[in-house]
Design a protein that fits this description.
Radius of gyration: 20 Å
Number of strands: 0
Largest sheet: none
Order of helices and strands: HHHHH
Helix content: over 70%
Number of domains: 1
């Protein structure tokens, strides 16, 4: 009885993760060309500061407040990092599997396009992860 509950829970978790990964990918593909698509946090903060027409003194304070917020957010999520890493590995496995299943139904020309789209998405994700990790490294330094 306990084993079947565990299997059911694992199946639901897998379905949830696969659905989330597929939905995220679809959102990125559909909305990537839209002008107001969400940019990185620093990019949107820079845009906000520009739209507010901050003075140089205000910009220094604004950047300090936002830097403090980033540091606090990193600290809040630090205890969850091992689980997040594990979820990332599971998500990658599901993404790879989904990609291969999708390729099976496509023509060779469509497969090339899908591979290019995926490569671009992976490259953008890696760039975001590098920026995230750089920010995390800066927040972990002692002043």
């Amino acid at each position: 009885m306990q084993r079947s509950k565990s299997y059911a829970l694992m199946f639901l978790l897998g379905a949830f993760i696969a659905g989330g990964a597929l939905g995220f990918t679809a959102d990125r593909i559909v909305s990537r060309d839209k002008p107001n698509h969400r940019g990185g946090g620093r990019q949107s903060m820079g845009r906000m500061a520009k739209e507010l027409d901050l003075t140089p003194a205000q910009r220094v304070q604004f950047d300090s407040i936002m830097s403090n917020r980033r540091r606090q957010m990193h600290e809040q999520f630090k205890p969850f990092q091992p689980q997040m890493d594990s979820m990332e590995r599971i998500g990658k496995t599901l993404s790879d599997s989904t990609h291969e299943q999708m390729k099976r139904i496509l023509t060779p020309a469509q497969q090339v396009k899908l591979d290019a789209m995926r490569a671009k998405g992976l490259r953008e994700s890696a760039e975001k992860r590098a920026r995230w990790n750089a920010g995390r490294d800066r927040t972990n330094q002692k002043p």
